[in-house]
Amino acid sequence: xxxxxxxxxxxxxxIIGFSSCKKGNTYYEDYQLKDTEFKGTTLNFLETQGTxxxxxxxxxxxxxDLRRKLNATxxxxxxxxxxxxxxxxxxxxxxxxxxxANRNPLYIEDIPQLILDSLLYHxxxxxxxxxxxxxxxxxxxxxxxxxxYRMNMMYTVTSASGITNxxxxxxxxxxxxxxxxxxxxxxxxxxxxxxKTTNGTVHILSPSHNFGFSKLAKLLNK
Length: 222
What we know:
Elements: H1 2-32, E1 36-37, H2 42-47, H3 54-61, H4 64-71, E2 77-81, H5 84-100, H6 113-121, E3 124-126, H7 131-134, E4 141-144, E5 150-157, E6 169-175, E7 186-197, E8 200-205, H8 216-219
Parallel strand pairs: 1-7, 2-8
Antiparallel strand pairs: 2-3, 4-5, 5-6, 6-7, 7-8
């Protein structure tokens, strides 16, 4: 009788273990497939996230056309948002070069209007582009930003707990630098994807992202 109970118990544990492994293979991906819905515009979303996007909101004040689009219910945009650290990364890198050349430091308010407009526009795209849309394009997809600049979006999934492609869904956003060769591209991954707002989709770039895809230091140190 004891032997029979031991066999039943072992079989029960085996079934639980199998179910857990099966869940582990898809849990993170299935969870990430669910969009986070925000009842407000993309601009509203950025404004209600504490101080995380203060630098971005300050930059958007200088680019009123894009700011208007992010708040207009008549427009549908996909926007890649940057936290404060992305601007800090870019400003510090730019000023390090300027300091080496004995030039005065510059900040967001000092960036020439045409440069700021161009760099910010590269993060905004007409239409909705989420992970479900991008996952069928193995090499990513070239998508034009709202100022008709060539960018690339690629769907990726990280590894988790030793499971390949079992982790968090991401989008790799790349500045193609007007080249078809990936070795010339500047790329950055998202930390959060698929935030659905009333007028589009927001993806949040990782804190390590350098605003302008590392172009700011070059553009302002000619």
